[in-house]
# Entry
Amino acid sequence: MAVRNTIQVVPRARRTLSSLRNLGYDLRHAVADIVDNSVSAGATTVDITVHFDGTGSWIRISDNGWGMNANELTEAFRYGSDREYTSTELGRFGFGLKSASTSQCRRVTVVSRADTPGATLEARQLDLDHIDRVDSWEIFGLAPDELPEPVRSALGEASGTVVLWEDLDRILQYQNPFGGWAKRLLIACAEDIDEHLGMVFHRFIAGEVAGRDPLQITVNGAFVKAWDPFCRSEANTTALQEEDLEVRSRHGNGIVHLSPYVLPHQNLFSSSTARKQASGPKGWNRQQGFYIYRANRLIQSGGWCRLRTVDEHVKLARVSLEFFPDLDNAFGVNVAKGSVTLPEELRDALSSRVPTWSKVANTAYRQKQLPKSVPPSRSRPTPTAPTPQAPAQDPARGLSDPDRKGTPSIRPVPPSPALASPQVPASTSEVPGTTALHARQALEAAAAQTGETEALTRIASTLRSMFPEVARDLGW
# Structure
């Protein structure tokens, strides 16, 4: 075979980088992508600072992970960096650090020290203004005396990595960047980041990820609190049957784990504060549906993926769906890790289950009054991590103080004993509180589990004829 003449075509840096700034990141997803890198680097603390100073405003994300040496740091600035990711790492494309950063700013500086004896501080900087001038893929290597002030003492002598965003052109777009509107915007941005990270990384913060210490995240000195979508610490949350589905496709094989929950009626929450927190960042109706996790990191929070419409009457239904990176291609995970697409055959498998979950949620929603006595249910509690004492924060919440330093086929997989623990009682004698509502929920869940929903419908019809008072008590 004749040797073909090849011609190398190198992308133009100026236009390519301008396009890569528009990969679908908003600020919250951009910050979360940087935190992904910190988690993958074994960090147990991540500190985020949002600092307002007009055109000199900046955002800094620092961690105590194992850091990078000079070669690793340079490679980290390469688009599509050449490295292997493990099955539990949160990174994937080799684009995150660069694309997430430049989606929000025009200058990004990264300072890192590897966790090896005698490691020195290494620093690199990507400046879009410089690339616009030279139209070349160039970054700067910075000496210690060239470091921007916000990163000079951020690491001290420890290992870790600091990412600094300056020239926040995608965030501060006001004619008067020193004005009150600009400051209030940055305050709102800090609060939004806090809320988003508490949801996305709630398993890591709560210490629920096997083999890892709890992750501590702060935003301007305030500790980020984990937000559990399933309210597992609430006694009256109902955990339905967990299930594993095996996904096989030309893109790869893997397991999808389902954990459906039905939250309590508003009258059955332990407090009004707990009920308000359960509504989530988007509100009750928009938080119903699927919570899709990739390697324990939340990607999608709510929504039924076109399997049914959002409905006030099923707003208490929330379903955990989790997979690992071996199914990334099957799920179509995007660069920003902000959305996924359910494989078609998985949609088929879920479409037969959604009505069952919705029916139990509808029953819970229609309980209008609090039973006189409701003993604790048997739903799993949420593991909790010790809450450290938060340092003092700026009274203007969210801003740092400038004077302060520092195509698949699917089949069910028999669940392991650890996972096969139905939370709905099999008989009314075991129903929490033995209330009529719980009895009906238990009967409907048991019928759905055994494939006898139609039989239960006939029984309910007969019950209405023979014993109307009993049927009425059960809500039939």
